[in-house]
Amino acid sequence: MTLTAATAMSIAAVGALLTAAPAEAAGSVHLTKIYYDSPGKDTGSNASLNAEYVQIKNTTSKAASLKGWVLVDASSHKYTFGAFSLGAGKTVTVRTGKGSNTTGTKYQNRKWYVWNNTKDKATLKKASGAVADTCAYNNGSVDYTAC
Questions:
Q1: Per-residue pLDDT tens for 21-73?
Q2: Which pLDDT score is estimated for 26?
């Protein structure tokens, strides 16, 4: 059996399609860390509240608009992003307390803690309501979890 040049090229093209990188290799916007038990006693001071945070990373090669995205815990405490673009390869830290928002840090402006010290679940939802990522922990012996 002899292959024509056109047939050989078609087979090579199909082979290249079959070996293409999976879609997830393109990256995503996902939860990377929850620091749920701030150091010291839970006094409710702003410094203590801000030591409790969630980190979200954009592992794509393009900036991602997080406008309308929601970060929520198991008790339905919600933080909704306003107009905000997370740069390619960048991380944003969402702190519980009060402060001035920057491109790298957002503040929920709460007066009490969100993340339970022993067990909770963070869910990151897109503006459409679709779940982008979740991260749960069930361990009171450490102060944070990597997602």
A1: 333 446 899 999 999 999 999 999 999 999 999 999 999 999 999 999 999 99
A2: 63
At 100, phi and psi to the nearest 5?
A: -95, 120
**What is the C-alpha to C-alpha distance for residues 147 and 134, in angstroms, rounded to an integer?**
8
Say if residues 33 and 147 touch (Cβ distance below 8 Å): yes
Judge whether 14 lies within some domain: no
- Whole-Å CA distances, 89 to 57, 67, 127: 7, 18, 20
What is the bridge-based pairing of β-strands 119-125 and 70-72? antiparallel
CATH assignment of the domain containing 38: 2.60.40.1260
Does some domain include residue 89? yes
pTM of structure? 0.81
- Specify if 97 maps to a domain: yes
In a domain, 9, yes or no: no
- How many domains in the chain? 1
Q: Quick one: DSSP state of residue 89?
A: T
* Structural domain boundaries, residue 70: 24-146
Q: Parallel, antiparallel, or unpaired: how do β-strands 64-65 and 144-146 relate? A: unpaired
Phi then psi dihedrals of residue 5, to 5 deg = -60, -40
